[in-house]
Specification:
The chain has 172 residues and is mainly α. The protein contains 6 helices and 2 strands, in the order H-H-H-H-H-E-E-H. The protein has one domain: dinb family like domain (Four Helix Bundle (Hemerythrin (Met), subunit A), Up-down Bundle). It starts with 16 loop residues before the first helix and ends in a 5-residue tail after the last helix. Helix 1 packs parallel to helix 6, helix 3 packs parallel to helix 5 and helix 3 runs antiparallel to helix 6. It is globular.
């Protein structure tokens, strides 16, 4: 369902700050895609260990929400409603509700959110451009990019363990 090999490029050693942050974020996006590559829908839905609801599909859905939140809502000021956890009684719907979730839709949504995030970041004149959190606090594009790299890196560690559990595949 998720396709074959993923083109994952490690950033060059001599990039400027903005290009470096953009490149590392894309590297980590590609890492998540590679952890999901070649698996069928049931494998992508497979949970880690009880009581956790963590799955690769859940991670993809979660990262779509995270991309949407930080880039559309905070940086872009868009009124972008949550996709997978719109019910206040189900705040972890991105992770929890994967048993019947449409896998192709989840990957298409995640890719679309990544594309929109790239557009919004590219439209910013520099790393000091600020967006506004719901709390009213300003946050710079530099902070958002750094946070997104951290968010993907942490969840890619989870994805690595999930993938190893599913079919024994290990890697970077």
């Amino acid at each position: 369902m998720t396709g074959g090999l993923v083109d994952r490029q490690e950033p060059a050693y001599d990039l400027g700050e903005r290009a470096m942050l953009d490149a590392w974020l894309d590297y980590h996006r590609a890492t998540l895609a590679s952890k999901c590559s070649g698996l069928d829908d049931s494998q992508l839905r497979e949970r880690s260990v009880r009581p956790s609801t963590l799955s690769l599909l859940g991670l993809v859905r979660h990262m779509a929400e995270v991309e949407r939140s930080w880039f559309r809502r905070v940086l872009g000021g868009e009124d972008a409603e949550p996709i997978y956890y719109s019910d206040p009684d189900d705040p972890d719907g991105d992770f929890d509700n994967v048993d019947t979730a449409d896998v192709a839709e989840a990957f298409a949504t995640w890719r679309a959110e990544c594309d929109r995030a790239r557009e919004l970041a590219a439209d910013a004149v520099d790393l000091e451009v600020t967006g506004v959190k719901r709390s009213g606090e300003p946050v710079t594009l530099r902070w958002i990019l750094t946070h997104m790299i951290e968010e993907y890196a942490r969840h890619n560690g989870h994805a690595d363990l999930l993938r190893e559990r599913i079919d024994g595949t290990v890697g970077e």
